[in-house]
Write a structure and sequence with these properties.
475 residues, Rossmann fold, 3 domains, Phosphorylase Kinase, domain 1, 6-stranded mixed sheet, Aminoglycoside 3'-phosphotransferase, Chain: A, domain 2
């Protein structure tokens, strides 16, 4: 257990060390004596603090007088930047009322997988050192139990951070797990990590089969909201992976969402690689499964640039325009077209669809679910073969840059690709649901624009798709 203790009083430091007995309790303590030292320690990327203890009255820097405002600055930094780390505030005469005010906003959470929500922030008066030490020892025991859970990856090489491993262990402990077996999923190109997790108890019995989405607590909270607003209330129960749990405490700024999935299941990219006609049939199932989102949605006048903004905000344009030399993209964005707006998955590449043996598709990863053009999902699914790394692994040398530029001319575009039936199925879905052809072109343009953001994208293909879309939008 790693503790950051923010305290300038040397006598109280000694008392705290004596009470916690770090040499014999598995506790590693680091002291900060002022605001600046404390904030720097909080912001250390790899510090891995399990608990932060902070005196409210501390100096701003070495050699200055202690003031409450400096302790509050540390408190604010911890809450904002390490929302999943428990914080214990030390108060003394003159700060009791302030500590009580801080406590009134404290949330509860299960930071150590015990199945019990406890206060993330708690205040102790300095004479309550015995009580504080007792709680810290309970935390140390809980962390030791977490660390005792085996995380097994087998021959796979998974680059997971210590906070991500902690999130997995918290989930596993809640499921009475002794072992968490991990397997990779392709995932997206964002800062989040998506993996398959199988949890087994001490007898080897499986207690949980989930897909884990690991990322910042802000991203986790955002995706939970999207799931509760758009997925669970609207789609059929068989169309999506239900939420099995979430972790928003215990690992600093990192959290996780856990979605139940049936086994065996295969990512759609894998199905396409092995059996293109089967993948084509899955596309039809997807179109049907997502129908509730678009039912009764009218067409309206929309600028092409507005569809692009749904996928790439204006503030991100500056980093991308260098790729667009010779392309009249600004003129294309001014064009007004008819489009149908509705809820869409928003990141429907072939790794975010798991396929059951009966060809039933299961959606995962709802971090971009929201309202935009109805054609976004089918066109993302099709073009992810070009613009997603896992899609490129399936497509191989197809298409050439010339073919990619002429992606709208379907017959020429699919030549030489064994999965042509899959591509045609995606495109037909897009044309069926869009208000008109130009909406499909605009979505292809916007998705290619978005994928330019990511270093792992084949940017030559993205620019080719974008160039072809602009040419048709301006013709």
């Amino acid at each position: 257990m790693r503790i950051l203790a923010v305290e300038d009083d040397l006598e109280f430091r000694e008392a705290l060390v004596a009470a916690l007995d770090p040499d014999n309790s598995g506790i590693a303590m680091v002291f900060a004596g002022n605001r600046d030292e404390a904030i720097a320690a909080v912001r250390e990327t790899d510090a891995g603090w399990d608990l932060i203890i902070c005196d409210l009255r501390i100096p701003a820097e070495a050699g200055t007088s202690p003031e409450v405002e400096h302790g509050m600055a540390v408190y604010g930094t911890v809450v904002a930047e390490l929302p999943g780390t428990p914080l214990r505030i030390l108060s003394a005469f003159g700060t009791f009322a302030l500590a009580s005010t801080v406590m009134s906003d404290a949330r509860k959470d299960d930071a150590f997988g015990e199945g019990l929500d406890k206060p993330m922030i708690r205040s102790y008066e300095k004479y309550q050192l015995v009580e504080l030490a007792a709680e810290v020892r309970e935390m140390a025991d809980a962390i030791a139990a977490l660390d005792g859970i085996e995380v097994a990856t087998g021959p796979e090489h998974l680059e997971l951070s210590d906070p991500e491993l902690r999130v997995i262990r918290v989930h596993a402990r809640r499921q009475s797990g002794a072992v968490a077996r991990l397997a990779p999923l392709a995932g997206g190109l964002s800062a989040s990590t998506t993996i398959r997790v199988l949890v087994e108890d001490e007898r080897g019995a499986r207690t949980s089969t989930v897909v884990a989405k690991l990322g910042s607590i802000d991203r986790v909270s955002d995706e939970r909201g999207r799931f509760n607003r758009h997925i669970a209330p609207s789609l059929g129960a068989t169309a999506f992976a239900p939420m099995a749990g979430f972790v928003t405490a215990g690992a600093g700024r990192t959290g996780g969402l856990f979605y139940s999935v049936a086994e065996p299941s295969t990512p759609l990219f894998g199905v396409l690689r092995d059996d293109p006609d089967r993948a084509m049939r899955v596309v039809g199932q997807l179109e049907e499964a997502l129908a509730p989102w678009r039912t009764g949605v009218p067409a309206s006048s929309t600028r092409v640039g507005d569809i692009r903004r749904d996928l790439v905000p204006d503030e991100q344009l500056a980093s991308l325009t260098s790729y667009l030399g010779g392309i009249a993209w600004e003129e294309a964005e001014d064009r007004t077209i008819q489009a149908r707006g509705c809820t869409v998955h928003g990141d429907l590449h072939g790794a975010n669809v798991l396929v059951l043996p009966n060809e039933m598709p299961i959606l995962i990863d709802y971090g971009r679910t929201g309202r935009t053009s109805v054609a976004v999902d089918p066109m993302m699914l099709e073009l992810s073969l070009l613009l997603h790394p896992a899609g490129r692994a399936v497509a191989g040398a197809w298409p050439s840059a010339e073919q990619a530029e002429h992606w709208i001319d379907l017959d020429d575009y699919v030549q030489g690709f064994p999965g042509a039936t899959f591509v045609r199925a995606c495109r037909q879905w897009a044309y069926r649901v869009a208000a008109g052809d130009r909406e499909v072109f605009a979505v292809g343009y916007a998705y290619a624009f978005r994928q330019l953001l990511f270093d792992r994208t084949d940017r030559d293909l993205a620019v080719a798709v974008l160039r072809g879309a602009v040419a048709r939008l301006l013709s």
